[in-house]
Amino acid sequence: MKKLFSILFLLVVMASCSSLQTSYDYDRSVNFTEFKTFSFYPWDYKNGFQINDYDKQTILDAIQTSMEKKGYVYQEKGGDLAVSLFITVKGKTSYDAYTNHYGGWAGYGGGWGYNGFGYGYGYGPGYATTTVTENHYEQGTLVIDVFSMKGKKLVWQGIGSRPVENNLDKRDRVLPKNVAQIMSKLPANK
Q1: Which end of the chain is more exposed for a tag (fewer CB within 10 A), N or C?
Q2: Cα 93 → chain centroid
């Protein structure tokens, strides 16, 4: 199962598109109706370098809302499930190339030929120019792990990856939707 999660993580990290790329996996032998409550695992200090406190709280609130919609009850400590987060932000570069092709042209003029000097149609040379544009951006990946506290094992994992939104107003609107999209495949306890 660890190998599968590693492969899924690599696939998500390799995808570089403007929309959210999600994947998930879970232990199909687990009966999620047995779980009633959830708690958050303590915040990883490494995540503090990647995200500000406001966005952190937005993510936690969105996860809590998603879990509660699926029938789980939040408990500050000691829940049946523990939710853990891991965030990476990586600098990326994309390239766009555009080619302008200017074809040859026809003309009428003189020149030497088999029968001596004569006039006729001919073609001039064509040329092309290519412009390459380089775009630097940050790719953010959010990994949400859900552990069973009873068995101390990973039972569900959701991963979302997309370019980081720099417009703060737009990020406030998009971030909860992105988290909800990642959490959408978590089995409900109902």
Answers
A1: C
A2: 14
Instruction: Fill in the amino acid letter for 46.
Output: K
User: Residue holding tokens 């003189």?
Assistant: 110
pTM: 0.69
Q: How far apart are CA 74 and CA 166, in angstroms?
A: 31
Q: Which residues contact 108 (CB under 8 A, 6 or more apart)?
A: 119, 120, 121, 122
The letter for the amino acid at 133 is T
DSSP letters along 47-89, please?
GGGTS-HHHHHHHHHHHHHHHHHTT-EE-SS--SEEEEEEEEE
| 58/7 Cα distance (integer angstroms) | 28
Query: Token pair of 26, please?
Result: 């879970």
**Of 168, 178, 157, nearest to 61 (Cα)?**
178
